[in-house]
Amino acid sequence: MEMKEKIRFYIRYLGRDSFTGFYELRFLPDGESVGYNHHDWEDIWYLENVKNALNEIISQKQ
């Protein structure tokens, strides 16, 4: 999968916290971490990197 395709596919798992405005991983609607068991570690690692990059951009804007 290309990077753009991966981002489009996995972006649904990134939710924005309404209080802080930062992104967090949400595999289930309420943000429980149960979904971590159902994904490969490489996918979770990739999502964590994308999430950290987006949060860094947000923190630089503030």
TrEMBL record:
Domain of life: Bacteria
Protein name: Phage protein
